[in-house]
Amino acid sequence: MKIKNRTRKAFVFIACSVFMLSCSTNKYAETDKVYKKLAKNFSKAIRATPPTDQKIDSLNNEQFFVGTVNMGIRKPNYVIIHHTAQESTAQTLKTFTLTKTAVSAHYVVGRDGKVYQMVNDYLRAQHAGIGKWGNVTDMNSCSIGIEMDNNGTTDIWTEAQINSLCALLATLKKKYSIPTANFIGHADYAPTRKPDPNNFPWKTLAKKGFGLWYDDELQLPPADFDTTSALRIIGYDVKNLGAAITAFKRHFVGTDLTPQLTEPDKLILYNLYKKYM
Fold first, then answer.
1. Phi, psi for residue 82 in degrees, rounded to 5
2. Do both 100 and 180 map to the same domain?
3. Model confidence pLDDT, tens digit, residues 39-64
4. Residue 82: is its pLDDT beyond 60?
5. Residue 176: partners with Cβ closer than 8 Å, 6 or more residues away
6. What is the mean pLDDT of the chain?
């Protein structure tokens, strides 16, 4: 009997030690619990038949629900790339696990190439905010947000970081059939508010099929080439034309971010305009 008691006590001690060790090694254990609770609540809302508090019959003030057999889960159609504008991956992970910040992303890619997933691809992360790309004004609801660990003032993107990003993008593109043109930057979507990702190697990504790029040989545009319409067709919100031009140049030119199109800029714009038509 004493042996059994000792064995039981030893087992309890080991189990407690393992539990305490796991908690000490995962400093995000508490926020992981909150994530799981939120996901569970979302699943309850989806399973509710009929949905609660949704009186859709205005005549009888009743709900009539008939479940269809033809349905599927919503999937992302865009990828938005950001830079964190912070000094480390750890700082960003902390920012995205504080309720008061109200911001998040699906993935964070560290300078060492390590990829952290923070939101399930099918859920809505809070990364894009107010903006417009084409006809899309709620990018959070139809995109995956990827934060690249970079403070925004350096043009240094490590090889490990870009390689990991490209591997992740390849997976997302294949899994969700995301069109090549739908890999864009935060500044493209929100040109009046955001400059990210700054000094980013978009050409490297485009060569791998993540975003469009202009050809090596460029043709002169016709004399009546409408640059404002071209920017709009590509996707830019031209209500603030200067901001749209700067965002375009940040993505495709990389130098001279003044809000005016030079003649070489127009060559690039014309080439891309034809690709997006």
1. -125, 165
2. yes
3. 999 888 888 877 776 666 556 666 67
4. yes
5. 75, 76, 77, 121
6. 90
Q: Catalytic site residues?
A: 147
Where does a domain end: 208, 223, 252? 208
Six token digits for residue 94 = 């902390």
Q: What is the mean pLDDT of residues 222-237?
A: 98
Do 19 and 82 fall into the same domain? no
Question: Any idea which residue has 């349905």 for tokens?
Answer: 71
Tell me, what's the pLDDT at 198? 94
Residue among 231, 61, 51 nearest 134 (CA)? 231
What predicted TM-score, i.e. pTM, was given to this entire model? 0.87
Q: Same domain for 78 and 204? A: yes
Nearest CA among 170, 163, 188 for reference residue 272: 188
Identify the CA nearest to 26 among candidates 116, 119, 146: 116
Count of residues in the chain: 277
